[in-house]
Design goal:
The chain is built from 4 helices and no strands. With about 80 residues, the chain is mainly α. Helix 1 crosses helix 4.
Length: about 80
Amino acid sequence: MTRDEVYESLRGYLEDLFEVPPEIITPEALLYEDLDLDSIDAVDLVVKLQDLTGKKIPPDEFRTVRSVGDVVDRVYALLAE
C-alpha cells in the first residue's frame, strides 16, 4: 500500500465515520483542533486503521500524532515493518 493509498483510506474514514467535510481534510489538518475529533473518535480511528493494516497499533504510538499527515506517516511506517 502506498502513502497516497493510506491517505485516501484515512480521508474516507474521516468522512464516513466522523462526518468531516472533505475540503478540510489535508495532511496539515490537526485531528483535534481542525477536524474536531475527540479521544473516543481517536480510538475508533485506531480500530479502523488496525483493520486496514492487519496489525495491532500500540496506543502509545498513536498518542503523539497530531495531524492527518502524522497518521499517514505512522500507518505507512507500520505497513513497511
